[in-house]
Design a protein that fits this description.
9 helices; single chain; nine-stranded mixed β-sheet; D-amino Acid Aminotransferase, Chain A, domain 1; 2 domains
Amino acid sequence: MPITPTEKIWMDGELVDWADATVHVLTHTMHYGSGVFEGIRAYPTSSGVAVFRLGDHIRRLFASAKIFMINIPFTVDQIIDATREVVRVNGLNDGCYIRPLIYLGYGEMGLNPLPCPTNVSIAAWPWGTYLGDEGIKNGVSCKVSSWRRHDPNAVPTAAKGTGMYMNSSLAKVEAIKAGYDEAILLAPNGSVSECTGENIFIVRDGAIITPHTSDSGALAGITQNSIETIARDLGVEVRHEPIIRTDLYLADEAFLSGTAAEVVPIRSVDDREVGTGKPGPITVEVQQTYFATVRGEVDRYKDWLDHVE
């Protein structure tokens, strides 16, 4: 999806003009993918624009950096404050997508990243739902990819690392060229892992089932956790269990979740309709409650909202 430029990007403690937020061609992360990032959304509410689960996202950013042995030269609170500032200074009162990035900068080359300087940027811009309004409403078609998800002992799948997303890009391109909306990746052992940038859920006999993230090589999603909480509060059983490919075909319902994608029904997998081929009742109820939550319309989840003043 194209980016709509805003006025300012936060870089290493300063706000710079969008067009001036550049890096050197020999920036280490450009060559080796040695960075970490987050995707965060802010939404309009009756009390002003609010960032959804901001603290949780920034703490995961720092956890990813720790796994890669990257020392961030700012505190969690400083990055939280900087994120609010970026939303505020750009006047993004109707909501936006936010991208904090920790990257290794210019001055060192080679596979040892330890001497590299660490840089931090935070950008924000208006961005519609990742898989489109039609996908939100009627569901998306998915293909099980020929590309496997990372083995957690090959790269640390508990981290949201920049270079690791080449795996997702390969799967995404394969799916799009084959005529599908999204790809589903299998873990090295053949069980279902996740989509290219989203966690996956099936509904079977009235219960929601999603893979164990650590076992399947999937990233533990903040939206995923939100969905699980919402579903349980709605009285729906949620279980973490291995899922195999045919479980997707035979599910009563299926859906995916992620910050960019939000909550999207899956209407088919490998040309097999999931359930009736339309969003199911549990998916719809969870989806509607999620969208009400991020817009501050559900009192019990208002502590998930970080208001930008």
